Amino acid sequence: MGMTEKEVGMTEKIEIATLPSVTRNDSIKNDIRGRIAMRPHFLHATRYSILDTIQRGKKVLKGKKILLGVTGSIAAYKAAEIVSLLKKKGAEVFVIMTESATKFIQPLTFSTLSENSTLDNLFSTNDKIVVKHISLAQWADLILIAPATANIVGKIAHGIADDMLTTTVMASKAKVIFAPAMNKNMISNPLYQQNVEKLSALGYEFIDSEYGRLACGETGKGRLANIEDIVDTVEYALTFKNDFQGKTVLVTASCTREPIDKVRFISNYSSGKMGFALAKIARVRGARVILITGPTSLPVPTGITTISIESAEEMKKEVFKYFSEADIIISAAAVADFRPKEVFAGKIKKEKSKNPLIELERTPDILYELGKKKGDKILVGFAAETENLAANALKKLKEKKLDLIVANDISAKEAGFGSDKNRARLINSKGTAQELSLMPKIDMAEKILDEIIKIK
Ligand code: CTP
């Protein structure tokens, strides 16, 4: 709000940052909560849940070119540790400081640690340095801005390029990650929030700030994220492709519950693990993701608009509400096919009804109805089968006008409902099949998305 970076840096001594985080109890069902979940695309929660399952220890950073932007914050000194850790892990590092950052820490510190000259002024008298930002913009595999002030976020969100760092970011196609650090009132300011939303929608990433002791002596949320976490996030971002950038992916997950009376329902064993894995990996690969899920014990994933539903009818309503926004729809939910024709108002008492008969009726086939309206959207379904896997899956693929079907033998040991692993056969609209052997669902999500992205 008209503050200079210097002012931003100074106010950072006061308590910093809080953003509404979405918890299981918050979960969802209305637009306001949906919007909170969409807000900033913070990497942390997604990262932790996925990092556990991806193979670590790969030398991801070896030889990678990281451009570190340091802006005017009291936390600027911590950027020295970031350089040091990136170098230790084999990365090549170039540092660009804003003018305000130089008030907090000397460029010489970064030059020494990075073994490269540190740039701090676009209008340097050195001709070679003046053009350097363009070549650096192309050189970088990834741009990390840590610490990032409200000022730098605002400038980049508005396309302002008036110094070495902002011009370099503007001229680069590399992924940009912000690690913000600022006063809590600045973070909750709607102007800052709008800037984050705008940048997130364009694929810029944000690393959530931390809770802890602040420079002013108070304790609160908002410090620059932990250095190891920042470097981990960089590794993580470099591990994944960004091939779903610009796409909106709608995923349905878990089971549905069809009420019999106030306390009983018909459902199935689906846990939601496969649908959640697809949603998370699509998000990590750059998609905007809308997850419509039935009851599950899984935590609400960060950076994903998550909508909780109970019945097939509710799922259908939400799916069609978001239909027009989606480019790709993945129907991973095990939707109950039948529901009681009448729902008893209270609790059915056993004395009154010794052998109750429950008359069932069909629920809407959501995917079939999507198939009728699909247009140029990509439609992916699952087939849960206990016999004639290929024939039944192919029939569903055709009837529901799918582009791809994931056929599961749900009677197989170690795989299917509730398990962390799955084995499947992918069949595309040409009838070409691909066997996916037993693997963690998170890996299978990668393979399924690899196939989806190939569909034209
Ligand atoms: N599906 C759906 N709505 C339903 C039933 C299924 O959208 N009422 C979707 C599922 O999400 C899945 C696909 O359709 O992607 C196939 O589901 P599946 O349970 O395997 O098959 P059904 O079509 O229900 O047929 P059946 O139960 O007879 O095998």
Architecture (CATH level 2) name of the largest domain: 3-Layer(aba) Sandwich
Helix content: 25-40%
Radius of gyration: 25 Å
Number of alpha- plus pi-helical segments: 17
Number of strands: 19
Structural class: alpha/beta
Largest beta-sheet characterization: 8 strands, mixed
**Distance between the amino and carboxyl termini:** 44 Å
Q: Would you tell me which CATH topology of the largest domain applies?
A: Rossmann fold
Categorize the overall geometry: elongated
CATH superfamily of the largest domain: Flavin prenyltransferase-like
Low-confidence stretches: 1-57
Spatial strand sequence of the major β-sheet: 12-11-8-13-16-17-18-19
Q: What is bound: which ligands?
A: cytidine-5'-triphosphate
Determine the strand fraction and express it as a percent band.
15-25%
Q: How would you characterize the overall build of this protein?
A:
By secondary structure, this protein is of the alpha/beta class. The protein has two domains: 235 residues, Rossmann fold, CATH 3.40.50.1950; 199 residues, 3-Layer(aba) Sandwich (Rossmann fold). The protein has 17 helices and 19 strands. The strands form five sheets. The protein has an eight-stranded mixed sheet with strand order 12-11-8-13-16-17-18-19, sandwiched between helices. Helix 7 packs across helix 9 and helix 8 crosses helix 11. The protein is elongated and about 80 Å long. 46% of the residues are buried. The N terminus is likely disordered.
Secondary structure: elements and pairs:
Blueprint (H helix, E strand, L loop, with lengths): L4 H7 L19 H8 L5 H8 L13 E6 L7 H11 L3 E6 L3 H4 L2 H8 L12 H13 L2 E7 L1 H8 L6 H8 L3 E6 L3 H5 L1 H12 L3 E2 L3 E4 L5 E5 L3 H13 L8 E6 L4 E2 L5 E2 L6 H12 L3 E6 L11 E4 L3 H11 L5 E4 L6 E3 L19 E3 L3 H8 L4 E8 L3 H11 L4 E6 L11 E8 L4 E8 H14 L2
Parallel strand pairs: 1-2, 1-3, 3-4, 4-5, 8-11, 8-13, 11-12, 13-16, 16-17
Antiparallel strand pairs: 6-7, 9-10, 14-15, 17-18, 18-19
Helix pairs in contact: 4-6, 4-12, 7-9, 8-11, 13-17
The chain binds cytidine-5'-triphosphate.
Cytidine-5'-triphosphate (CTP) binds next to α15 and β16.
